[in-house]
Write a structure and sequence with these properties.
The protein has about 220 residues and is of the alpha+beta class. It contains three helices and ten strands. The chain has a domain of about 80 residues. The strands form two sheets. A five-stranded antiparallel sheet has the order 1-2-3-10-9. The chain has a five-stranded antiparallel sheet with strand order 4-5-6-7-8, with helices on both faces. The longest helix is centred in the first third of the chain and has 25 residues.
């Protein structure tokens, strides 16, 4: 009986230790960072390992290996951008202004900015599957129709383009099919991002809950003239 008790006790201890080890591995310390791992840098934001100043520089020039800017909002006369992050590499300031050999900018174009371009109380928002939805009142055949269009978001010729894939008027299917061609252009989005330095080219766009997240890249960009 004594040997049996010793063996049983040993098995219990082994189980307790095993459970403790598993719990330690799969759990996080209480009160620790709950934000998860830091996101990897976006394309174009890594510092070049061989960044070196120009061989010849003028007396009034200043060279920066890299330059970073984070802004919650950027407002210009014709546009509003949110959550702006800009990373410049090989930046020279001098008589020509502030020039970056490479510049990467990620920014969010708010839905309301795009909706204001279409006018007439248009509402733009996110839809399932990474798509965008446009709700707008349009006039067709002498009648006003409340249209709900959903489409894919793409980059075309440096613009944010939402091409409707489905158009719904809330009526019979035959009415929607007959009228779709007339109103399609009225719910198609073609937006140029304004307020950023010339030379930046839109590379990618994705739909977020608060707007279109745009990624722009450029070379030899004049940040400040």
């Amino acid at each position: 009986m004594k040997d049996w008790l010793i063996g049983a006790t040993g098995m219990v201890l082994v189980l307790v230790v095993g459970v403790a080890i598993i719990f330690w591995v799969v759990s996080d310390p209480a009160g620790g960072d709950e934000s998860g791992p830091a996101p990897s840098p976006t394309l174009g934001t890594e510092r070049p390992p061989d960044a070196e100043p120009p061989a010849e520089m003028l007396e009034d020039e200043l060279w920066l290996a890299d330059l970073e800017l984070d802004a919650g909002m950027v407002v210009t006369a014709g546009s509003v951008l949110r959550d702006v992050r800009a990373v410049g590499q090989d930046v020279v300031t001098g008589p020509d202004g502030l020039v970056a050999a490479q510049l990467a900018v990620d920014a969010t174009v708010p839905f309301e900015v795009v909706a204001d371009e279409l006018g007439n109380g248009t509402v733009v928002g996110a839809a399932d599957g990474g798509q965008a939805t446009v709700v707008r009142t349009v006039e067709a055949f002498g009648r006003e129709l409340r249209v709900i269009a959903t489409g894919t978001v793409e980059v075309e010729a440096g613009r944010i383009v939402v091409e409707p894939r489905s158009i719904d008027f809330g009526g019979p299917d035959f009415l929607s099919d007959a009228t779709a061609a007339v109103v399609r252009r009225l719910v198609t989005i073609e937006h140029d991002i304004e307020g950023l330095p010339e030379g930046l080219v839109l590379q990618d766009v994705a739909v977020q809950n608060d707007g279109f997240r745009a990624s722009l890249r450029g070379e030899d960009v004049k940040i400040v003239r």
